[in-house]
Structure formats: C-alpha cells, structure tokens
Amino acid sequence: MVSRFATMVGPSSASGRREVRIAVVGDGATGKSTLIAAMASESFPKSVPPVLPPTRLPRNLFPDSVPLTLIDTPSSLAKQGTRNEELKLADTVVLTYACDEPVSFERVTTYWLPELHKLEVKAPVIVVGCKLDLRDENQLVSLESLTTHIMKQFTEVVTCVECSAATLYQVPQVFYFAQKAVLHPVDPLFDYERHALTDRCVRALRRIFVLCDHDMDGALNDEELNEFQVRCFNAPLQQFEVANIKTIVEQKVPEGVNSIGLTFPGFIYVHNLFLKKGRTETLWAVLRKFEYDNDLKLRDDFLPVPSKQASDQSVELTSEAVEFLNGIFRLLDTDKDRYLRPAEVDKLFDIAPESPWNDAPYKDAAEKTDMGYISLNGFLSQWALMTLLDPKRSLANLIYIGYNGNPAEALRVTRRRSVDRKKQTTERNVFQCYVFGSKHAGKSALMYSLLGSSDEYSWKKSRDLLEKVVRQGELTGYRTPCLLIAAKDDLAPVPRTVLDSVKVTQALGIKAPIHVSMKLGDSSNVYNKIVNAAEHPHLSIPETETARRKKQHNQLLHHSLIFALVGAAMAVAGLTACRVRAVKKNTAA
C-alpha cells in the first residue's frame, strides 16, 4: 500500500461531522458493488445487484466514531447524470480499477481523474485496486511504481491501495483512509510543491506556541510542554518522554532546543514529524483543541459576534477591546515614534491566517505616511472599519493577536439610529458617511484631502525628484548640494509629512527642511542659504546608505593599500641598508 497516511492509530478529535459520504466510482466490473457489500457484511458476497442502494456503516467502526454512508454509482452512460450528482455530493471519492485488468488502471488517469476535474469535484480521491487475488503474479508490478506518478500529477489523490473482497484483505483500510481524508485532511497542512508545512499551518502553530509559552521567554519549559500535552491529549508526559523529545529534536534541529526548553523551530519539527509519519489526526487534534476548523481559521461557533436587530444599527469595538489595541500598538512601537512600520504590522499578524489589511477595502483605507507608516489613530481606525464591515473577521483577528478577554465582550451593537434621533444624541464612536456626486465632481479629491493627501502628494513628488537627483549623482559622480524647502509654511502642515521630511533629510545626511512662507514674508533667508550651499560644494551632499557603505569600504581598502606600500617601502629600505653594510665590510677587509 502506498499512502500519504500511516497505519491506523488511536482515537482523536474529529471535525464535528455527523457523517462522511463516500461515492464509489470506476469502470464497470471493477468490483465497486462487491467492495461495498464485503465491507458491510464482513464477508465475500456470492452475488450483488448492478448498483447497491446507499449503505450506512455504524459509527463505532473506526476510532473517530463518525458513521459512513457508502454510495454505489452506475457505470453506464445512460445513468451518467445520476453518477455526476452523487460525485458532487460526496465528501470523498473512492475510484476503483481491477488489478487483473490493466486497461481499467490506465483509465484512472486517462478518463476518470480528468472527468472529476471537468465536474469540478473538490473531494479527496482514494484510488483503489480491487480483485487483488485475481492478478497474474507473473506480471507483478509494484503498486508504488504504478501510482507515484498519479499522486504527483493529481494532488487530489491522497491514497492508493489494493485490496481483495474475496479475502477481505485491506477492505477496511480502504474506507478508513476515505474517512480520514475528510476528517483529517492533509492539504491544509502540507504543501507538496515545497515539501513543507503550509504557511497557514505554520501561522496556526505559532499562535498555539505563543499561547502555551506563558512566561513569554521564547521556549516551552517542561511544565508548559506538559500543559500543552494534557490540553491536547488528556495525558501528561513522563519526564523521560520529555527528555526523549528534546534529544530527538536537538539531533535534527539544533536550534529547536535551548537551555529553557523547546523553541518554536523545535515545536514545528515535532508536528512536521507527525505529518511525515502519516499521523495527520495527531496534528489535527492539536489544531482543533485550539478551536481551528479545516480551513485553519477559528471556528464560527468560537466567535460570538453580536447580532444586529435592525439595519440602522452597527457593530463597534468595546472600550475594553480598544484599550487592548492601544496596548498592542505601544508594545509594537519599539522605537517610540508613535508610528508602526509595515514590518511591525506584518509581525502583529504573523500568528493570524493572513494579514487582513493587505487587500481592499482595508489596504489603503487608513491614514499612513508616504513611507507606509501608520499612526495610532490610523491603526485604531483600521480596526474600527473592519469591525463595521466584517465583525466576525475583526473579532477573529483580535483573538489571533492575543486578546484573552471574554470574546462576547469585545464587540457591541449600537443603538438604532431612529432611537438616536428621538433622543437627539448618539452613543456611536464610528460614523459611516457616503459621499456621492457626478463624475469629476471632486469626490476622490475630497476624500484624499481628509487624509492629508494634497500636501502628501506634493511631498511625495518632491521626495521622488530628490531621490532621482541623488541616484544620478552617485551613478555619474557629479554630486550636487541639495536643500529641501518646505514652502507655504503659513498653511497648516500635515504632521506626518513634516515627520517624513525630517527623517528623509537625516537619512540622506543633509540639512533639515527650510520652512518658508512668502505670504507671511518669512523667507528664512533662503537666498543666502542657497548661495552658501553653492559656495561650499562639499557640504549638503545627499548620500544613500549604499553609497556610504561603499565609501567606507573604499576608505578601508585605501588605508590597507597605504599600510602595504609603507611596509613594502620599509622592507626595501631595510634591504638597501643591509647591502650598504655588506659593501663597506668587504671594502674594509
């Protein structure tokens, strides 16, 4: 048997399914009906009808205690419509071929799997060779050589197995693997192209690791590791078992263990090991204990989103949730500049399935600097918008990033607007305003101006031009002194534009922006400053970090060359002196 799953193991937590529906398809006379009958009766049937009625297997047949419904399908073209409907309803597809009929095996790849693609069947597929007892042993070909290319070409095929209804050989395994493919799917966990855990799986495990690392020291000590084990599997680890885990991890991933305990790379290695051994149910048991569904997102029933009773109500964050977000912002703002860089925001969501703000309508919705930095107000407004538009997503992401309060108290439903009008006051903190008008009426310009984008656009254009001047100077060697003039200083400046301009001048090593207002008659003596810069061409030269590093390298190389030349000169002088002394000595003799 060739399988992406290992042998049967003990019971584990399934995904809450009430049943698994399995459609059995394949060419006529490949053994579909006989396989189902043998499984149901635990014996080889002497005769079976062309198509069996739906067959229900008891829930206690396999460890997950989920009943199976087996659907036999017709092979005739006349009943193709019925078969196709059953395929679309199936949780798993068992695709059969006859081990004594090579042609039926060829049709697995030439007809059946392409047909499932055509019908857009999304269910996992188990390829099953029936009538193993009838195969000609003289033409024995290993199952592995036959099926390896199938599993590479068709990723929906999770298992290939051969069986015999006549001897009952591996008949139960066929339906165990069919059930397992549904209850403990491998696709959300493993990326076959990269041969590694999927990004979403790693993110889920990172969140679980963080939740279990109570003292936040970056490693799970023995006590934390045991708490994790008890929570997921209801059984503690013995001390020697903990030691064995650490030894195995340290041998394969040295950075997976430190003086404290198991680090995140080690935690990942352990779960990857379960997956490679085919124990998907073990990894799913962990994920489901932390409320993940089959899409590796928090289950809907774990997200108590309050319901609006009327269309003129809205959903907002509670003061408790806002205070939590304030704390998160302060924690991430390590340089205390009251802004978060894009990398800091990405770090915040690296324990969520994905960053919720990378796509519309959130991507460009909040107030940001030209460099992509987001202020506290912008950060909170982004959360407010997500809560307004998609409360469930907002609550899920609050929990992902560490909100440990009562989820039911994180969001609140506002009072009806009709009630607000009667009371002539409102309790809302977030207001939704629709801006409409004809084309070119200035709607977008109005919205951008509220974000300060008019000044920011001017600053962005100036910054782009400055960068072009700097790059051209470094490329050609013709470097020019530069001054940054902040004109129209009488107008209220956008704070983030002022901050950005200062940061850019500091980064380039030139003087701070010169503020000028012709309207107020404040020229800041700009003419003399321009002349002074021209008279001192070695000053106010903008320089990028790359150019600075290159200059330092050249200076170091220059000094090394000087030292080498001095050393060589001293050596030559010493050699000359030796020769002079030798000549004098010979003359005296």
Contiguous helical run count:
20
Main-sheet strand order equals 1-7-6-5-2-4-3
Average pLDDT across residues?
A: 84
Strand-pairing-aware structural class: alpha/beta
Task: Report helical residue fraction.
Answer: 40-55%
**Spatial shape:** elongated
Describe the structure.
The strands form 6 sheets. A 7-stranded mixed β-sheet has the order 1-7-6-5-2-4-3, with helices on both faces. A two-stranded antiparallel sheet has the order 8-9. It is 47% helix and 10% strand. The termini are far apart. Helix 13 crosses helix 14 (391-400). The protein has 589 residues and is α/β, with parallel strands linked by helices. A hairpin with a 4-residue loop joins strand 8 and strand 9 (196-197). It is elongated, with a radius of gyration of 36 Å. It has helices spanning 32-41, 80-89, 102-118, 143-153, 171-183, 199-212, 222-233, 239-252, 264-276, 280-289, 319-332, 342-348, 376-389, 391-400, 417-423, 443-450, 453-476, 495-508, 526-535, 545-588, and strands at 2-3, 20-26, 55-57, 68-72, 92-98, 125-130, 157-162, 190-191, 196-197, 219-220, 262-263, 315-317, 339-340, 374-375, 411-413, 485-486, 514-515. The chain is built from 20 helices and 17 strands.
Give the key terms:
589 residues; alpha/beta; seven-stranded mixed sheet; two-stranded antiparallel sheet; 17 strands; disordered N terminus
